[in-house]
Specification:
Arylamine N-acetyltransferase fold; 31% helix
Length: 273
């Protein structure tokens, strides 16, 4: 009944080519860190199918693979992290899915509307995530109250229950006011792919989906990040941020293709007819 959620990747090598990574010589932390960073700089967080084109989102492996690898699109967390963990597992890592909560504040107990992953290396458990621009550019150990340096950024885990940890990021603003920003609450217990069917329906299926009116793209870059929220393009480069409003449809489509590698012009034009 749910076989599509558990299907193998059509091609591991084609997926690796998509993010310009070789097969690993050794299944270690260094390779996985590089794999995560490469994915974040090649595959955008992308809600355009549901938020702009009005489509429903499938989380079957073949559907996600065709979208992200063959058609060179992105996806949101149930798609992008769902496909990525299949890659990590098929390369040979001991990894599994975990539930997550996106936390606006530490006091807010949000529903499980995010999909993350855990990998076990040398007896230690690490969180990893390619499903959003603020996510760590590598693996973060489930280790309490200790800042971890990851590709020039700092992240920390804090236990908030037997099965839950808050993940914090130390941004430049945080360093000034000494207030680290919470990114999300990550579980450590295993979730199965079927456990994401219901939250994916809430986010990406039907006219009342949470992302139905949120046409967003964001992606890590080597010197910062880029995001397209509605028609507002934000570029952060070398700690400097510029914002441009793309009012013209051609500008909007051109920015998607040039900056994010996403080409939906034909579907967008057909939608307007």
């Amino acid at each position: 009944m749910y076989s599509g959620l558990y299907a193998p990747l059509p091609s591991v090598d084609t997926y690796l080519e998509r993010i310009e990574m070789p097969r690993p010589e050794k299944l270690d932390k260094d390779y996985l860190d590089r794999l995560i960073y490469a994915h974040q700089t090649h595959v955008p967080f992308d809600t355009l199918d549901v938020g702009l084109l009005g489509k429903d989102i499938s989380i079957d492996i073949e559907d996600i693979y065709n979208k992200i690898v063959i058609n060179k699109r992105g996806g949101y967390c149930f798609e992008i992290n769902g496909l990525f963990i299949k890659l990590v597992q098929e390369l040979g890592y001991n990894a599994y899915c975990v539930p997550c909560r996106i936390m606006p504040t530490e006091e807010t107990v949000a529903p499980v509307f995010h999909r993350g992953s855990c990998v076990v290396l040398e007896g230690k458990k690490y969180y990893f995530d390619v499903g959003g621009g603020a996510m760590p550019p590598g693996i973060v150990e489930y280790k309490e109250d200790e800042w971890q340096d990851i590709h020039g950024e700092k992240f920390m885990m804090k236990r908030v229950g037997e099965y839950w940890f808050n993940l914090y990021r130390l941004s430049e603003e945080s360093r000034i006011n000494n207030q680290p920003k919470i990114v999300l609450q990550a579980g450590i217990a295993e979730y199965k792919p079927v456990d994401y069917i219901a939250p994916n329906i809430m986010c990406g299926v039907g006219p009342n989906a949470r992302f139905r009116d949120r046409a967003n793209l964001n992606m890590r870059t080597k010197n910062g990040s880029v995001s397209l929220t509605g028609r507002e393009l934000s570029v952060v480069e070398n700690h400097q941020k510029t914002v441009t409003v793309l009012e013209d449809d051609n500008e909007y489509m051109d920015a998607m293709k040039k900056i994010f590698g996403v080409d939906i012009r034909e579907e967008f034009e057909n939608l307007k007819k």
